[in-house]
Structure formats: C-alpha cells, structure tokens
Amino acid sequence: MKMPGMTIRHASAMPAPTWSWLKMNDVTIQIPDDLERNCQVEIEAGDTLDNTTSFEGSVAALQERIDSARTDKPADERAMITAATGADRGAEELDIPALSTYEHRAVLSEVACDIANDFETGVGADMRAYLNFLAGGTAVLATEEGEEAEATIRVTSHEGEASGASIDIVAAPNSTFSIALSLDSAADGPAFMGSTMRVFAGAGARVDITVYLTASDAVTCVEDSGFVLDEGARVNVRHVVLGGGFTATGLAADLRGDRSRIDVDTSYLASGTQQRDFNYIIRHRGRKTVSNMDANGVLTGTSKKCLRGTIDLIHGAKGAEGNERETVLLASKGVDNKTVPNILCDEDDVAGNHGATIGHVRPEQLFYAACRGLSQEQAEALFLSAKLEDAALQAPNDDVRANVVRLGNQIIPHFEEEIA
Fold first, then answer.
1. pLDDT tens readout for residues 315-340
2. CB neighbour list of residue 148: distance below 8 Å, 6 or more residues apart
3. Residue 182 burial (CB < 10 Å; 0-12/13-18/19+)?
4. How is 23-36 classified by DSSP, letter by letter?
C-alpha cells in the first residue's frame, strides 16, 4: 500500500536557536509521495542480537546509581534555580534573573536529573517515530561484560519504496563493540531510507560506529542517533556522507558519566543540487568529560550544506572540555555553505573551543587547470575524486567499498579504474 507524502518540520533543531532570518535553526524534511513501506534491513551480529537486554533497563540502572549519589548533596540555591522553579515575587527579589525559554527548560532538566526524559536524538522525536514505524520493531544488539564484538547493519531502498531501521545498542561495562552501518540505494526514482539508533555505553565500555551513506540523487536519507555514556565510556563515531539528493544526519550525546568521552568525525561531499544537513548536540553533564567534533567536506555545483554543532557545558561538569572544528572546500561559486558552531556554558571550570576553515578554489587555480586542458567541471571532479578515493580506502568492509565505487562511477567517469 502506497503512503502519502509527509513533511517533518523543525527537524534537527538547535537547542538554543539563533536569528530566524538566517534560516539555520532547523530543517524541513520532505518525504516523497506514493512510497510503499518495505523494510529492507540486514543485520549480521552473531550472539550480540539480544532480546533480553534493553536500552531502558541500562538507563534505569544508571539512574538508580546517580540518584543514590545525589541524596547527600546540599540543596542548590542558585538564583536561576529559584527563577525556574519558584513563584514570581516581582520586586521583592531583584537578583532573580529572567530566563529565556531555552534557559528555563535547561534549568528544569538539571534539577530533575532524569536521564530517560533528557534522552534525545539529533534529528528529533518526529523523525525517530517515523523511522520506528518503517522498521516495524527495534532490534537490540548487546555485549556481555568484557566482551569484544562486531556487527554490520545494511539498509537499502528501491525506487518507490521507504525503508527504515531501528536499532538499540547496549555495550556492557568494559566491553568493546564495533558497528558498521551502511545506508545504500541506487534507486533511479524517488525513494526514502533511514536509520535511528539508541546507544548506551556502559562504564569503561568502548563503542566504535562507522556510518557510510552512498545513495543516488533520487533518494532522501536520514541517519539519526542518540547516545548515553556511563562513567569512563569512550565512543567514536565516523560519518561518511557521499550521496543522496537530500540527507539529514543527526547525533545527540549525553556524557552523563564522569570521564566519559565522544569523538565524532564527519566526512562529506555534495555535488550538483544535492543538500546536506548535519546536527550535532553534545551535552557534558559528568566531570572531566571530553568531546571532539571534526568535519571535513567538499561542495561543488550548486549544492547546499548546513552544519549545526552544539556543545552544552552543563553546571556540575567541572573539568569538561569540548571542541568542534570544520574544514570545507567550496569548489564552485554556486554553492551555499552554512556552519553554526555553538557553545552553551553554565560552569566555570570548563573549556570550549570552536573554529571553521572555509577555502575557495581561486580563479588563478582554475586558470592554471584550464591551461592544462581541464575544464571547471573536470577540476571540480578532482576534488570529488580525492574524497571518494579516501572513503573507498577506509571502508569498513568490501560491500561498503563496492558501494562507494559504484557511486564514484556515477559522479566521475572511470573512477573505478583510477583507484584500481
């Protein structure tokens, strides 16, 4: 049965919005009309495919430990707590600040300290609900304490179809879990595919996630994830976004445990009229937590890209450090590039750093290439080829590498021969 189209507004929203006229606070995702629901998901996980462990149970156990540790703490009498939770006393207490909508919500979250209620994904609840509907159920991949495990997830979609995966990943304490996720489609007509993941990294666990997106121009694709990190947990995420007419990539992380750490590395390219949207939200709640967001991309043709990166240094996260960096090459005058690095801070003993490097292909460089017989399109192809070649060489398995090569052949003639 074919489904009507759907418009999901205010997806991938920044926690603290900026000026609306910049049109950078969120994105509207349009799901094509007349698609048929057909979940095409393959999971190779061996013994880690588990129906007994749950994401909710792991979060509840962490909540119990945190609540026990909070019982001996004195009451927080900061003025902003009174502003968010107390009655308005007018001129009686002039030191009580006025709070924005975001600040009010953030303070109430801090007071409640409710992990389950605070959980979020990068693209948002509406898209997660739609992907859960497409998937028809959630697969749980879980490790045992101290175990080393691997899993591969493949999501695909054909013309006229909508396919989605819903995955929960639970890494037990001191375990190591490596996951490769492939979102691939060669559809010539409208199609949709996506995945939504909830990830719990137990105390001392290490989770490595590699995501490759290799879709044709006719495909709309969404990759959505949310993380909760326990004490000393370490998470590495690598996003490689190479294809798709419209793509939305979102990640939200709750560094709840002390000394937990997340590193996010994003590599992307966009050509023609393609559109890329990224939204990263990392909230530091534990002490001495660390986050690093690094993005590197190439834009050609009349492509568009928006990247929102938010580091939230919440009160109590003493010794926390958050860093975000982006390097983007604009290989054509027609591209539209937007980058929104954002640092929110309610703690003194922290460090937050952000920066962006935007490079252009200068006219003299194009003239030099032209003197050697290269048109502007051929010069742009050189930058795309370099990005595709790097993605192919670092692919987690042969199937993903084949997807990159197939996509490369569509963008650049004889790409497969160039990397042979």
1. 999 999 999 999 999 988 899 999 99
2. 175, 176, 177
3. buried
4. --S-EEEEEPSSEE
